[in-house]
Design a protein that fits this description.
With 407 residues, this protein is α+β, with helices and mostly antiparallel strands. It is built from eight helices and 24 strands. It starts with a helix and ends in a 5-residue tail after the last strand. Bound molecules: ligand MTE and molybdenum atom. Molybdenum atom is lined by residues 94, 140-142, 237-238. Residues 41-73 are annotated as: Disordered.
Length: 407
């Protein structure tokens, strides 16, 4: 009797979670989900032998972390993650012309222009060169949305993800082709239908850029640029050209579409900023956040903070709408240009309030409030490189909603 009750409640819990996701998903997906949810009614697991090991692992049918999708992008469910590595199948996606199908045995990377020795690298060639792994985030500069109270962390800033990337330092390739001293820029060109291209300063290329072919221990996913992509740590995601096929060294930028008509932002006085590469420091509380229903008592506030300019130095939490700030604990290791998990223990007394986080990075940069940023951008409430403090309003009934100050 009591056993049955527990199972029933567990299942109801699962069903409730699914219901939230169903609202956000297409009708087709609703049907797909409804079936496994009812089919997996576990009995006593000590009485039957379970499935035997298989070639691929699976998620529990009770867990449904999911990306939300549009025609041009998909967003990481930040509120469903417990750490800083994004499972590869939950990495956000942004494609200008879909995901190309590429034969890794035929794919070639040409490096030419202002170099002593133009070269072509196959995937096999790259894998023979000294390899490096690093953990860093990748964030789209268009990673900001607002508009209504009922938005999740995923809705607001799900265009950031983090992986362990493996590949070759660009400095290694540049040494191979012997880049000429007067080369100051290089063009990176993708082999998708958009032939997406960006100009990158050689200085950054030599500093920490990589050509990567692996992600979280396995080959890159097609969505992330299989078989190889450029990785520019800390810079706007657009510069990390996927499915890369060509790099041309030059003494000036190429003024490609993605750096002239796109990826520039107004900074007031009718001025437009171009080549704004660095991703400014940002943080967001991912728990408690919409659609969580909070209960009075102890709450561990959790979230992520990161900076494109280096390490996170400090995350502060306010639980009284920005009047007082307290240092959150940072989960070690705190890495360069990487999502860093923070936690702060709070006792909620049941009164209406607002909770928010703000990050300071190692350069001393402090994350601005929505109002400060909007004022600095001539009243704009969004656009590229918009990284304001996100405030969550906690209502007396425990409902958590995006603060009206962020809308
Ligand atoms: N070739 C190519 N590279 C590309 C893109 C693209 O459409 N084509 N999108 C860019 C943009 S705008 C971003 S934010 C990142 C997204 O990388 P992801 O899809 O692996 O998350 O890739 C960048 N590299
Ligand atoms: Mo992007």
């Amino acid at each position: 009797m009591s056993d049955k009750k527990i199972h029933r409640r567990t299942l109801l819990g699962g069903a409730a979670t699914a219901a939230v996701i169903l609202v956000q998903s297409s009708f087709g997906k609703m049907l797909q989900k409804a079936i496994p949810e009812s089919a997996f009614t576990p009995g006593d697991p000590t009485k039957v032998t379970g499935p035997l090991p298989g070639p691929m692992g699976t998620r529990s049918p009770f867990e449904h972390p999911e990306k939300t999708t549009s025609l041009t992008s998909s967003r990481t469910p930040l509120q469903s993650l417990y750490g800083v590595i994004t499972p590869a199948d939950l990495h956000f996606e942004r494609h200008h012309a879909g995901v190309p199908a590429i034969d890794p045995y035929k794919h070639e990377l040409l490096v030419h222009g202002m170099v002593e020795k133009p070269m072509i690298f196959s995937l096999a060639d790259l894998k023979k060169l000294p390899a490096v792994s690093r953990i860093c985030f990748l964030e789209c500069s268009g990673n900001f949305r607002t508009g209504k109270e009922t938005m999740t962390p995923q809705d607001i800033c799900g265009l950031t993800s983090q992986s362990e990337w493996t590949g070759v330092m660009l400095s290694t390739l540049f040494r191979e082709v012997r880049v000429k001293p007067k080369a100051t820029w290089f063009l990176a060109e993708g082999s998708d239908a958009a032939v997406m291209s960006r100009s990158i300063p050689v200085k950054k290329g030599l500093e920490d850029a990589m050509i990567v072919y692996a992600q979280n221990g396995e080959a890159l996913r097609p969505e992330q640029g299989y078989p190889m992509r450029l990785l520019i740590p800390g810079w706007e995601g657009n510069t990390s050209v996927k499915w890369i096929r060509r790099m041309e060294l030059s003494d000036q930028p190429f003024m490609a579409r993605e750096e002239t008509s796109k990826y520039t932002e107004p900074i007031g006085d009718g001025k437009i900023r171009q080549f704004s590469f660095d991703m400014d420091a940002r943080s967001i509380i991912t728990y408690p956040a919409y659609p969580v229903q909070l209960e009075r008592g102890w709450v561990e506030i959790r979230g992520i903070a990161w900076s494109g300019r280096g390490k996170v130095d400090m995350v502060e939490i306010s639980t009284d709408a920005g009047k007082n700030w307290h240092k959150a604990g940072l989960q070690e290791p705190v890495l360069d240009k990487a999502h860093t998990y923070f936690r702060y223990l709070w006792h909620w007394n049941g009164q209406e309030t607002e909770i928010m986080s703000r990050v300071t990075d190692e350069t001393g940069y402090l994350q601005p409030t929505f109002k400060q940023l909007s004022d600095a951008r001539g009243g704009s409430k969004g656009g590229y490189h918009f990284n304001p403090v996100t405030a969550w309003r906690v209502k007396r009934d425990g409902q958590v909603l995006l603060s009206p100050d962020n809308i």
